[in-house]
Design goal:
Distance between the termini: 39 Å
Mean pLDDT: 91
Shape: globular
Strand order of the largest sheet: 10-9-8-11
Largest sheet: 4 strands, mixed
Radius of gyration: 16 Å
Number of strands: 12
């Protein structure tokens, strides 16, 4: 897979999405500005080209990178931004932000660089205008326990959603920027989408999972997003 495919970004239109949490039985509506999202999860080839690292358990350039923490993902975003001459979205270091030990992360919402999607952006992009639990028949759109042969699969091997995004459900879970529930779970971050080892009920647009930002496992990866200029200009200073 060449760099042009790795780096293919899909325009996601503005819209609204209603998030829900089964644990708290709470739902909340979010307005989502237009943005761009990578058509595929970040691949091992792309990750290695940007960072020089190959952290995954399974090996293959077209496989999604896995075994990466939330911190690994945001550092990849910054490295990719620098590589392409963009302003990094994250300030990583001492200061106000989301803490882990001595490290902190702050999202500069005015930056034009790469970043993780928010949870609302992720679900809005996943649904692509659909309203059911999935954007198509599960076996046609996702790698999960029922068809994955118990292993991660190359990106793009199943049908995309209506907006041209592949592997939004199944294959690997995607890290999102958001804290899951700071009052209860502290620094735990949101994971979305389900993975290759999950049962069908975990591969739904609304399912939320959480984990510590240092967590690494072989069914968790990520994809990248970028704010559109209009959306950046509209954000509060």
């Amino acid at each position: 897979m060449g760099e042009s495919v790795d780096n293919e970004m899909v325009a996601v239109p503005a819209g609204s999405v209603t998030l829900s949490d089964r644990r708290t039985r709470r739902s909340w509506a979010v307005e989502v500005a237009s943005f761009r999202m990578s058509a595929f999860p970040v691949t091992q080839e792309w990750y290695a080209r940007v960072t020089g690292e190959r952290p995954s358990t399974a090996r293959g350039g077209r496989l999604p990178v896995e075994g990466v923490s939330w911190w690994d993902a945001i550092r990849f975003c910054n490295a990719l931004s620098v590589r392409e001459g963009l302003t990094p979205a994250y300030e990583v270091g001492p200061g106000t932000g989301s803490t882990h030990g001595d490290a902190t992360a702050h999202w500069d919402t005015a930056a034009d660089g790469y970043r993780l999607p928010t949870e609302a952006e992720w679900e809005h992009a996943c649904r692509a205008g659909s309203t059911g639990p999935r954007y198509g028949p599960l076996d046609e759109i996702a790698w999960y326990r029922g068809n994955s042969d118990d292993r991660v699969q190359p990106v793009g091997g199943r049908q995309p959603n209506a907006w041209g995004l592949y592997d939004m459900l199944g294959n690997v879970w995607d890290w999102c920027w958001d804290l899951y529930d700071a009052e209860v779970y502290g620094t735990y971050r949101v994971l979305r989408g389900g993975g290759w080892s999950d049962e069908h009920w975990s591969c739904r647009a609304s399912v939320r999972r959480r984990s510590h930002p240092t967590f690494r496992i072989d069914d968790v990866g990520f994809r990248v997003a970028r704010s559109t200029p209009a959306a950046v200009d509209a954000r509060p200073a």
